[in-house]
Write a structure and sequence with these properties.
Blueprint (H helix, E strand, L loop, with lengths): L9 H11 L6 H15 L14
Length: about 55
């Protein structure tokens, strides 16, 4: 399932954080992941709010 919006629930964030605890990565691996995620997030729109209605 592909993500539709940038926002995540606090519960989801906590689950992701807990699953990542204790895992180590090299500096170059961290840098590559960071650059990939930056590119990915540029393609995901913000969730529309009631203040941003078009029409």
């Amino acid at each position: 399932m592909k993500r539709q919006y940038r926002e995540l629930s606090d519960e989801t964030k906590a689950k992701i954080s807990q699953s990542m605890k204790g895992k180590s990565k090299s500096f170059t691996h961290k840098e590559t992941i960071s650059n990939g995620l930056k590119d990915y997030w540029k393609t995901i729109p913000n969730k529309p709010t009631s203040n941003n209605k078009v029409g």
